[in-house]
Design goal:
single chain; about 130 residues; about 0% helix
């Protein structure tokens, strides 16, 4: 299973680091995607990171969010900086045993499209 954590309340312009830890399996060979869903809005893909380190980011977060991976700890991190109120959402991580080379905007977004889907962690950006 996947365990996402690290959410919380942060002021605009602040930073947070989310973690996505795998248990019961190793992240090697899995692409890890981050999604977010704000209340009343559709789920959107934030990033997709392959095991080789290649990562696609949504235009709305590019340059502000960075994904890193620690395969020894079976953990993927989403470092978020320059947070804006529109980043407020519940963030989810998902793992699929493939290497994704398509557009982030074509990335499947259903829970059943993934081998593992973590519970969400809430990020609230507010002063």
């Amino acid at each position: 299973q996947l365990q996402a954590s690290g959410g919380g309340l942060v002021q605009p312009g602040g930073s947070l680091r989310l973690s996505c830890k795998a248990s019961g399996f190793t992240l090697v060979y899995y692409a890890i995607s981050w999604f977010r869903q704000a209340p009343g809005k559709e789920r959107e893909a934030v990033s997709c990171s392959n095991n080789d380190g290649s990562t696609e980011y949504a235009r709305s977060v590019k340059g502000r969010f960075t994904v890193s991976r620690d395969n020894q700890q079976d953990t993927v991190y989403l470092q978020m900086s320059g947070l804006k109120s529109e980043d407020t959402a519940t963030y989810y991580c998902a793992a699929k045993k493939w290497e994704y080379s398509g557009s982030l905007y074509d990335l499947p977004q259903g829970v059943r499209d993934y081998d593992h889907w973590g519970q969400g962690t809430l990020v609230t950006v507010s002063s």
